[in-house]
Every structure is written in C-alpha cells, then in structure tokens.
Specification:
The protein has 263 residues and is mainly alpha-helical. Helix content is 64%, strand content 7%. The protein has eight helices and seven strands. The two termini are 44 Å apart.
C-alpha cells in the first residue's frame, strides 16, 4: 500500500511551523509546545547557534557570525533577497517533486498544476515591486510637497531638521540609517526586501504579506486534499475500519470464551 507519507509529513510539519510562528504568542497557546516552538524559531535557535559556534570554534568565530548578521541586516545588500528566492524556489521544487505525481487526483484537478505557477509568480511580482520601488524618498527638491502633505500637529510631530540630510523632516517621516535617506511615512527597513517600507510601497508590502499567507494556506489545503484523495483511492480508511472491526469482534469473542470457562 503506497501511502504518500512524504506528503503527510510535509503537510503536518508545515502546518505546525506556520501556526507556531504566526500564533505562538497568543494567550491561548501560553505554556504549550506551540509557544515553545515560536520562541525557538524567533530567538532561541539563533542564541543556541551562537553558543554552539563559540563552544566549538571560540569567541572569534562567534564575532564573525555577528559581523555577518550585521552586514546582512544593517547594511544595504541583496543577501536576504537571494535567500528568499532560494526558499521559494526550493520549496516549490520539493512540492513539484513530491506532489505533482498525485495530480490529478480524486479531489484535486490538473488545473492546480498551472494555478500553482500563477500564485507563485504573483508573489514574486509583489516581491520585486516592494524591493525595487521608491518608498518615498525625501529630497531638498520635493521636501516642501511632503511638508504640505503631512502637516505638523505640534503635539506628536513638531518641525525638526534632519541632522543628516539637512532638510526639514516632514511629519511621519524618518531618516533610515541603513539606506541613509529620509523616507516619507516611514514604517521600517526590511532586510528581506533590501528596501525601506514607506509611503509609496507600503501597499505592495502589505499585499506581499497577505498573498504569501494565502499562498501557504492554499498549499496546505491542496496537500490535504491530495493526501485525502490517495487515502480514498487506496481504501486505507476502509481497510483500517475493517481491521479494527475484526479485531474488536475477535476481542469480544475471546472475552465470551473466557467468561464461559468460569461458568
């Protein structure tokens, strides 16, 4: 009986990691293994890795790792962008190799072979738009436009000069120390995008996050339907039901025999 255990394992692990990463800090998961996995994924794994490097190779190697981290996260560079592309490409390759042979299946049509390419491509397009679009760079030429667009309220936002750019910093703007520029309606600098997230590309960034959430959800559902279809085609449920039914009858029969001996 050829049960697709690879798909079962892949789907289970993926669901556990996604739920733990996104929801592990919810009060409902407090004190559970889901919270522990979230802590491990977000901070614990990296700290253990640093301790392992220091124990195995010394303080110099640990400092080297921290230097690489600083270079990747605190300076403009495409390393995390390349890493993202590798993750998406590698995951899609694994999905194709492990699951496409089961498509079409009982619950999954051949359409999903091509639909998967479309949804991954849309995610890639949103990634490119977020990474390479102008987040809303403020210069001496356009600063007056941004000041009029985002007036100061003299409560939270007061008129200040950017000490680096030497121009008036509009309300809700901030100077990014990584990109070395003032950005309108600055949100944060995203290392994965190698770009700031600001006025002009926030919509692309939010669309990127939402689309990748839907992409993960779509993949998990389709993998579940593939597994369910394979179990149905191979009559695994009926076999297990029959097996436990026979075993249950055998157990009851044995119990009756034992009881009759005492009578």
């Amino acid at each position: 009986m050829d049960v697709p255990w690879v798909l079962v394992a892949h789907g289970s692990v993926t669901a556990l990691v996604v739920v733990s990463f996104l929801c592990g800090q919810w009060p409902i998961f407090e004190g559970t293994f889901v919270q522990s996995i979230n802590h491990f994924l977000t901070s614990g794994a990296y700290r253990h890795f640093l301790r392992l490097v220091q124990a195995a190779c010394g303080t110099g190697a640990r400092d080297l790792v921290l230097g690489v981290e600083q270079y990747c996260c605190d300076r403009p560079n495409p390393i995390l962008q390349v890493f993202y592309v590798a993750i998406i490409g590698g995951t899609y390759f694994i999905i194709v190799q492990s699951s496409f042979k089961y498509i079409p299946g009982y619950y999954v049509s051949v359409l999903h072979r091509y639909l998967s390419i479309v949804v991954v491509s849309i995610g890639a397009i949103l990634f490119v738009l977020t990474s390479f679009s102008d987040p809303g760079t403020i210069t001496s030429e356009n600063v007056s436009q941004y000041v009029s667009a985002y007036p100061f309220d003299n409560i939270i936002y007061v008129e200040k000069e950017c000490s680096t750019c030497k121009i008036t910093r509009p309300a809700r703007a901030k100077h990014c120390r990584i990109c070395d520029r003032c950005v309108a309606r600055f949100d944060h600098h995203c290392g994965w995008m190698n770009n700031c997230i600001g006025e002009k590309n926030t919509r692309y960034f939010v669309a990127f996050l939402v689309w990748h959430f839907l992409l993960c959800l779509y993949g998990a559902i389709i993998l579940g339907f593939i597994v369910a279809g394979e179990l149905k085609d191979k009559k695994v449920v009926y076999i297990l039901t029959g097996y436990y039914s026979v075993r249950s009858k055998s157990s009851h029969s044995s119990n009756r025999n034992v009881f009759s001996c005492y009578i």
